[in-house]
Amino acid sequence: MLIGNGSPLLSAFSLITLLEFFCLLLVDFCINNLAAIRKLESSARGRTHFVESCGLPISTYFSALKLLWLLDNVEGLNEAAKKGDAVFGTIDTWLIWNLTGGAEKGLHVTDISNASRTMLMNLKTLDWDKSTLDTLGIPAKILPKSISNSEIIGNIAKGWPITGIPISGCLGDQHAAMVGQSCQKGEAKSTYGTGAFILLNTGEEVIKSNHGLLSTVAYKLR
Ligand SMILES: *[C@@H]1O[C@H](CO)[C@@H](O)[C@H](O)[C@H]1NC(C)=O
Ligand SMILES: *[C@@H]1O[C@H](CO)[C@@H](O)[C@H](O)[C@H]1NC(C)=O
């Protein structure tokens, strides 16, 4: 989350990171107490309320609930977001924004695979899902523009030893490993990191799991 004068809400970031690693239960407790989420969970589709649009169950693992918590709990943030003085992004958003000039002229983007893990992106349109945003009360204008994993995004701003170099790709974590290991349609790979994950490349088709597996964008190369 970036805020008006260009400084990130660092306390919010580190709070979330720490809680995520050490007190997941506490985060769950706080977030599950968000009125919006309680209402959705008791609705007909329960935790799978958004599965049809984003492929993910309602979970504290994804950005949307953390964003809701921030909007609810950080003083002044909700108003700032509504006025367009605060914007949201994933870690790649922050890095690109910072590298391309920050508050002055930084680009506000996120790579599509990261966007698909926010719970806010529609897997079919590959765009932010309006009905999800309306349901959760998240203003569309605070969200970054989605970009593919391989395109010229912008140039490194002045102040860096590599000023002027184009940033021409952005992909993180399991998704990047999937591309790096050339995991093709029909193939699966396993990543060991903070957890162990198995990813199966289903090609261009979204295949709905009946066993609780997640659907997500692996990568988009142009
Ligand atoms: C990028 O981030 C660093 C570290 O927070 C900060 O010192 C610097 O001012 C930022 N650059 C821009 C252009 O925002
Ligand atoms: C985006 O990618 C980064 C780097 O791989 C990862 O740490 C982060 O969890 C991802 N964000 C989302 C919302 O998946």
Automatic annotation (TrEMBL):
Pathway: Polyol metabolism; glycerol degradation via glycerol kinase pathway; sn-glycerol 3-phosphate from glycerol: step 1/1. Residues 44-180 form the Carbohydrate kinase FGGY N-terminal domain. The chain crosses the membrane at residues 12-37. Its EC number is 2.7.1.30. Keywords: Kinase, Membrane, Transferase, Transmembrane, Transmembrane helix. InterPro entries: ATPase_NBD, Carb_kinase_FGGY_CS, FGGY_N. This is glycerol kinase. It comes from Datura stramonium. The lineage of its organism: Eukaryota, Viridiplantae, Streptophyta, Embryophyta, Tracheophyta.
